[in-house]
Amino acid sequence: MSGTAIRLERCSKTFADGTRALDPVDLDFAGGETVVLLGPSGCGKTTTLRIVAGLEWPDAGGRVLFDGVDVTTVPIERRNVGMVFQSYALFPNMTVEENVAYGLRVRGMPADERNRRAREMLEMMQIAPLAARSIDQLSGGQRQRVALARALAPRPRVLLLDEPLTALDARLRDTLRVEINRLLRGLGITTVYVTHDQAEAMALGDRIVVMDHGRVAQIGTPRQIYEVPSTRYVAEFIGTMNVVGGEIRGGALHFPGGRLPLRDAAATGSREAMFRPEDLALAADDGSAQFSGEVLASLFQGDHTRLEIDVGAARPIVARIAERRDFVAGERLHFKLSTPAIPAPVQST
Amino acid sequence: MSAAMDRRPAAFWLQLAFTLFVCAFLIVPVGLSIMAGVTRDMFIGIGSGVTLQWLVKVWTDYRQTVFLSIQIAMACLALTLLLGVPAAYVLARRQNAFTRAVEELLVMPVAVPGLATALALIVTYGGWGDFRRSWVFILVGHVLFTLPFMVRSVLAVLTSIDLRTLEEGARSLGANFVQRFFGIVLPNCRGGILAGSLMVVTLSLGEFNMTLLLHTPLTQTLPVGLADTYASLRLEVGSAYTLIFFIIIIPLLVAMQWAAAPPRRRKPVEETL
């Protein structure tokens, strides 16, 4: 399977009551790629997914293309997409196997052929022993697997997942995340995955589209998004980001607590620098330290200690220190950055 | 023994009084009525002997009313299914001010006295002779009266399941409207349709208020015939008639209880995956 390329051209969505759910967006999903739409609720990610699915029409002027063919007016019934819903939407009047075979049955596939295919799907999702169960006899994780098997059975061109793990508890979510990842890599099917969970997005996405108030805030690989967020919003939505204000000169940001070396020395009018809590390392007070601060709070997390440090900036910074020792409030610590900081994007973006 | 009785809490006596009260007004009259139906002479009492002669008489003279009542109830069921189920589906799918108003209006024939509805029908269509004289005229009244029960019953089930998402799931799998409606929507509101159906049949069989005005001497239904016998014949005949009504209606009531019972909850299996 090479996968279907999806293209959204100037797709916007205004609902009947006048609410603007999505500003015009252009998005390209390469064949076989897994793209995660990430953002808080109301950011337009589900609307985007539903436009790809054919459950919503884009406003006039918007177009949806599958492999270059305009499918904007093709309803979901004929788009051949596999979809997994947050609530799974499994049919309570059918057994597990009948659910999985439903998409094949409505296409008129002969009974023996569709049973074979349904069995194959159940094997793949490791739920073959549940074939004869009814839906209300299944646990959440099992329902999730049935939903995936059902969506994949008719060999859809694209797979669309709408917050598929949100209804599950944390441990199960981790297990299924790994499994879905392996499954998607194996199938090579173009996948659009909607979530508000950044850890899920990082783990599953070849690329992540971060959305905010109906707009695309940034598109990039998980590493790009994490390491070089293009806006303040992206930086703060994904993980924790320290922002320190001061004066930029000589390739570093100078502030009362010391200085921060910058990755991009030719900063563009920014007066702030950003760095992740894990970029901090403890330094000796012998000139190798770049800045220092006072411990405000210390939280032991097992594999690391999370410190809140007052470095004389507007807000305290957060440090993630792996060193095996205790820290006490009021203690003075010296730091250096293991990776240079980046200039913070100007607030208005 | 009196010591044991003294120790019983006040609630016990209240419950006993309530039970006796219910018996006195619900069970005893029914039992006496049934007994009257098989008593040779009620003036003397059951001591006069037990007989099936009244039942035979009712069956001989009034069986047409029984058949007509069943015929009307079945036709009424067919119509309320055809009208009520799609109506409930539309009301469930489109929740807005208009559909809510329709939902309220549908209940009107239940709230308005049956006599008033019947009069309105006669004032409007009484001049259409053949229609006025046919059993279909009664059927119209019965459908008006029972339709809301079907709609409500199906609607309650449809709004308790996530119909929209179920349908979207089916659509994503390629199902067209007909496939979805018959493969997903109807099977998943089976309980509501069943409960509604039994309700409609029961109500139609027992409907008296409207039918009293809508019927003609040639289109007498069971309850109207019953009133006729109580008014003009021996008490034993009316009671035997009631007995026949019970024989028809009690299995329906039992079936209704059975259909309305919540589905057996199966325990979800342990989370093993």
Helix content of chain B: over 70%
Element pattern of chain A in H and E: EEEHEEEHHHEHEHEEHHEEEEEEEEEEE
User: Any idea what the shape of chain B is?
Assistant: globular
Question: How many domain units of chain B?
Answer: 2
CATH architecture label name of the largest domain in chain A: 3-Layer(aba) Sandwich
Given this structure, which CATH class of the largest domain in chain B is correct?
Mainly Alpha
Secondary-structure element order of chain B, N to C = HHEEHHHHHHHHHHHH
The CATH topology assignment of the largest domain in chain B is MetI-like fold
Question: What would CATH call the homologous superfamily of the largest domain in chain A?
Answer: P-loop containing nucleotide triphosphate hydrolases
What is the mean predicted local confidence, pLDDT of chain B? 84
Determine the number of helices of chain B (DSSP H or I, runs of at least 4 residues): 14
CATH architecture of the largest domain in chain B: Orthogonal Bundle
The helix-and-strand class of chain B reads mainly alpha
In words, what does this structure look like?
The complex is a heterodimer of chains A (349) and B (273). With 349 residues, chain A is an alpha+beta fold. Chain A has 2 domains: 6-236, Rossmann fold, CATH 3.40.50; 241-343, RNA polymerase II/Efflux pump adaptor protein, barrel-sandwich hybrid domain (OB fold (Dihydrolipoamide Acetyltransferase, E2P)). Helices cover 24% and strands 31% of the residues of chain A. Chain A has a 6-stranded mixed β-sheet with strand order 6-7-8-3-9-10, sandwiched between helices. A 5-stranded antiparallel β-sheet of chain A has the order 16-20-17-18-19, with no helix packed on it. With 273 residues, chain B is mainly alpha-helical. Chain B folds into 2 domains: 14-49; 60-260, MetI-like (MetI-like fold, Orthogonal Bundle). Chain B has 14 helices and 2 strands, in the order ααββαααααααααααα. In chain B, strand 1 and strand 2 (45-50) form a beta hairpin. Chain B is globular. The relative contact order of chain B is 0.13. Residues 265-273 of chain B have low confidence and may be disordered. The interface between A and B is medium-sized, with 38 and 28 residues.
